[in-house]
Amino acid sequence: MTIIFMNEENQINQSEEIKKLLEQNLRLSAEIYKQTKYIKGYVFWAQIFSVLKILIIVVPIVIGIIYLPPLLKGAFDQYKGLLGVGTGTDNPIQSLLNGGVGGVDLNSLNADKIKNLLNQ
Q1: Are 96 and 69 in the same domain?
Q2: Is this model's pTM higher than 0.85 or not?
Q3: Of the candidates 104, 108, 100, which has an alpha carbon nearest to the alpha carbon of residue 117?
Q4: Same domain, residue pair 44 and 65
Q5: Cβ distance 80 to 86 under 8 Å?
Q6: 20 to 30 Å CA-CA from 72: which of 11, 15, 48, 88?
């Protein structure tokens, strides 16, 4: 009879231990669920703000590419006369870019040509 009693007592202890473990497991699962829900919301908003950051950078660049060239062309047209750009052969900037000064090729200069240029 003592063996049966010990066996029943052992089963009662095991069932209480299993009950405690299940309650602990349920409590920990609820805590993990709360943390997972919080992390999911955090990641969602992080993705939204990362897209907004990219848009804040890209949209002004695209708008600038579309609208600035016509505006800058109008502004540069006003200063072409002052800079001497686009006035033809008398343009000193264009002649420097072409490799000559005052219609003279810089590669073919010799001492006589330099004296003539200085005397002018």
Answers
A1: no
A2: no
A3: 104
A4: yes
A5: yes
A6: 88
Q: Is 116 left (phi over 0), alpha (psi -120 to 50) or beta?
A: alpha
> Alpha carbon of 110 to those of 14, 81, 95, 106, 116: distances in Å?
111, 34, 19, 9, 10
Average pLDDT over residues 27-52: 97
Q: Which tops the pLDDT comparison, 70 or 87?
A: 70
Report the alpha-carbon distance of residue 114 to residue 110 in Å, rounded: 6
* DSSP calls for 84-97: TTTS-TT-HHHHHH
Residue 118, token pair as written in the block: 């200085």
Same domain, 75 and 113: no
Q: Indicate the DSSP class of residue 98.
A: T
Q: Please give the Cα distance from 110 to 117 (Å, whole number).
A: 11
If asked whether residues 112 and 65 sit together in one domain, one would say: no
Q: Please report the pLDDT score of residue 29 as a whole number.
A: 97
CB 100 within 8 A of CB 106: yes
108, 102 Cβ separation under 8 angstroms: no
Summarised one tens digit per residue, pLDDT across range 45-61 is 999 999 999 999 999 99
